[in-house]
Design a protein that fits this description.
This protein is α/β, with parallel strands linked by helices. The protein has 2 domains: about 130 residues, Aspartate Aminotransferase, domain 1 (Alpha-Beta Complex), CATH 3.90.1150.10; about 180 residues, Aspartate Aminotransferase, domain 2, CATH 3.40.640. Strands 2-8-7-6-5-3-4 form a 7-stranded mixed β-sheet, sandwiched between helices. Strand 6, helix 7 and strand 7 form a beta-alpha-beta unit. Helix 1 packs antiparallel against helix 8, helix 2 runs parallel beside helix 8 and helix 9 crosses helix 12.
């Protein structure tokens, strides 16, 4: 198998698994317990929180562990909105205003769509330009007096566009608007730093950077007021009640440390592969349409995305699977549904172009040799299906 879908998930690293193993076997204690096993778990939990906070350039008590990005995004968005409602409950007809883009991940887009449908929020979805990046001037004009939250995806999961986060963050900071960053795809591509992003809230998910599935985190800047979304024993400073997943948190911490140490060199390797893949497909598939920013500072080095309007994407996916190649038609977070990508529609693609798009995303296991092998098979299958 040649795996080219690292934006969907990454394999668990051997170093992360090694650090997790004691907490999956002998060290099984509950971090809320006062006896020895519980205190070992608590100490390991604190060590993980400290290590992650050092990488993010924040305080350790600003890190809240969750089950992943979807929970983190729900806690961030719903928490801010409910707090704004509570603080303004005496204002007649008050409705908080929220801004996002039209290329957000479903775990942000669908939350805001639900809240807007229920008339709980006013919601502005900023259109991106044809390269997938927002216009800062349009962002400035979308701000309102009742804007309480801006939520922007750092690196788009489908076509790799990188948004101007620090500029957005500085604008929000000046206007006392809470700024949330969905940074799930940013690890390994950017310096994932609170100071760099200028954000108040930031979501991460362990399985996107060689950690385990089912664990993530939310950074909550000190002084940022949000409402908890779970009621229970008060773990994680009361924001996320429930017994902590110690093994998962340890694995995520180790994976984060490893990728932080090597991300610049890894990014250079991935960009080399990116150039190879783009040139090969453009040379051999005349009808392939490039999606997103050109290769460079505004695009993830791990990603290429082409619309292939003359073929059926689902047939391509299945035939490549038979060839031993794992790719994606776009997002892998939509419960297996085959539908037109809202991200590619936002770039101006037609329904057909947005539905039949090939996404290749690279990672640690991707070599030049296996990529070239995969590309030959991909082109062969595309030509077969286009007949």
């Amino acid at each position: 198998m040649i795996y080219l879908d690292h934006a969907a998930t990454t394999p668990l690293s051997s170093s992360a698994l090694e650090e997790m193993m004691p907490f999956l076997t002998d060290e099984f204690g509950n971090a809320s317990s006062l006896y020895r096993q519980g205190q070992i778990a608590k100490e390991s939990l604190d060590d993980a929180r400290f290590s992650i906070s050092q990488i993010l350039d924040c305080n350790l008590d600003e890190i809240i562990f969750t089950s992943g990005a979807t929970e983190s995004n729900n806690l961030a968005l719903r928490g801010v909105i409910e707090n704004a409602q509570k603080k303004n409950e005496n204002k007649k007809n008050y409705i908080p205003h929220v801004i996002s883009t039209n290329i957000e991940h479903a775990s942000v887009k669908n939350i805001l769509q639900h809240l807007a449908d229920e008339k709980i929020i006013e919601w502005t979805t900023l259109p991106v330009e044809k390269n997938g990046i927002i216009d800062i001037e349009k962002f400035k004009t979308s701000l309102q007096e009742n804007t309480v939250l801006v939520s922007i995806i750092a690196v788009n999961n489908e076509m790799g566009a990188i948004q101007p986060l620090s500029r957005i963050g500085r604008i929000c900071n000046k206007k006392n608007i809470i700024f949330h960053v969905d940074a799930v795809q940013a690890v390994g591509q950017l310096k994932v730093s609170i100071e760099y992003f200028k954000c108040d809230l930031l979501s991460l998910s362990g399985h996107k950077f060689y950690g385990p599935k089912g664990v993530g985190m939310l950074f909550i800047k000190s002084g940022t007021e949000i409402e908890s979304q779970s009621i229970g024993g008060g773990q994680e400073r009361g924001y996320r009640s429930g017994t902590e997943n110690i093994a998962g948190i340890i694995g995520m911490k180790k994976a984060f440390e490893d990728i932080h140490e090597n991300w610049i060199a890894e990014r250079e390797k991935l960009q080399h592969l990116q150039h190879i893949a783009k040139k090969y497909i453009e040379k051999n598939i005349s009808f392939a349409l490039w999606n997103g920013p050109e290769i460079g500072e505004e695009r993830s080095t791990a990603n290429i995305n082409f619309s292939l309007p003359q073929i059926d994407g689902e047939s391509l996916l299945m035939r490549l699977d038979l060839e031993g190649i794992s790719v994606s038609l776009g997002s892998a977070c939509s419960a297996g549904m085959m539908e037109s990508s809202h991200v590619l529609l936002a770039l101006g693609r037609t329904e057909n172009e947005a539905k039949n798009a090939l996404r290749l995303t690279f990672g640690k296991s991707t070599t030049e040799e296996n990529l070239k092998n995969a590309l030959e098979k991909i082109v062969k299958v595309i030509h077969f299906l286009a007949k």
